[in-house]
């Protein structure tokens, strides 16, 4: 059951979406929720149906003290690597909040200090604390919208369905049509990239 992170100061939760994808940005959100926030619907975005995620996005946007969503695109992912790009996306999201938090809670186990604000990494934090779960929802819904938009440009890859993840249909489309400007060049797009012809 989700709960508020219990500190007598403003706490921002942050999370990212799209880290394991072959195409598209990695997207992060940061959210500061009011102390009395409650929701029986809110959960980790991976455990929430798309229709519920869209309802929750509106609730979070309307009730949050502050929220911010940031994309880090393919060029920066290829330059920095996906871990550093994910952390950069979270930093940018926190930086663009309307007010500076006094404490940051992060989903996962990797983060870099931001402006000397104390932080805590929490494994499966999106299934434990409301503000991380809210950030998870905002990041996921924003990224899904982006992937649906670029699907119209490159419909063969079915990004409206697979959202850029390495599904069989996505990889088959790469075999048939090659890569696009939205693919991450530093990622192994096809398993046969590891094979050598002798």
TrEMBL record:
SUPFAM superfamilies xref list: Ribonuclease H-like (SSF53098)
Catalytic activity annotation: Endonucleolytic cleavage to 5'-phosphomonoester
Cofactor: Mg(2+); Mn(2+)
Annotated GO MF terms: RNA-DNA hybrid ribonuclease activity
UniProt KW keywords: Cytoplasm, Endonuclease, Hydrolase, Manganese, Metal-binding, Nuclease
Keyword Cytoplasm on entry: yes
Enzyme Commission no: 3.1.26.4
InterPro entries assigned: RNase_HII (IPR022898), RNase_HII/HIII (IPR001352), RNase_HII/HIII_dom (IPR024567), RNaseH-like_sf (IPR012337), RNaseH_sf (IPR036397)
Hydrolase keyword on record: yes
Compartment annotation: Cytoplasm
Domain spans labelled RNase H type-2: 9-198
Top enzyme category: hydrolase
Binding site for a divalent metal cation: 15-16, 107
Chief subcellular location: cytoplasm
Cofactor note: Manganese or magnesium. Binds 1 divalent metal ion per monomer in the absence of substrate. May bind a second metal ion after substrate binding.
Top-level taxon: Bacteria
Coiled coil: none
Function noted in UniProt: Endonuclease that specifically degrades the RNA of RNA-DNA hybrids.
Annotated family: Belongs to the RNase HII family.
NCBIfam families: PRK00015.1-3
Protein name in the entry: Ribonuclease HII
The species this protein was found in: Salegentibacter maritimus
């Amino acid at each position: 059951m989700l709960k508020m992170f219990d500190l007598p100061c403003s706490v921002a939760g942050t999370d990212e979406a799209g880290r394991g994808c072959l195409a598209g940005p990695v997207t992060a959100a940061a959210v500061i929720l009011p102390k009395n926030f409650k929701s029986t619907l809110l959960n980790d975005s991976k455990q929430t149906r798309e229709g519920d995620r869209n309802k929750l996005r509106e609730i979070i946007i309307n009730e949050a003290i502050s929220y911010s969503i940031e994309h880090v695109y393919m060029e920066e992912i290829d330059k920095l690597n996906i871990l550093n790009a994910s952390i950069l996306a979270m930093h940018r999201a926190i930086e663009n909040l309307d007010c500076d938090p006094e404490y940051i809670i992060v989903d996962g186990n990797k983060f870099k200090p931001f402006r000397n604000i104390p932080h805590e990494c929490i494994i499966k934090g999106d299934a434990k604390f409301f503000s991380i779960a809210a950030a998870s929802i905002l990041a996921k819904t924003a990224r899904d919208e982006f992937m649906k938009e670029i699907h119209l440009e490159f419909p063969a890859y079915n990004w409206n369905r697979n959202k850029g993840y390495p599904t069989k249909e996505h990889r088959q489309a790469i075999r048939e049509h090659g890569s696009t400007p939205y693919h991450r060049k530093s990622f192994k797009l096809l398993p046969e990239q590891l094979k050598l012809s002798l």
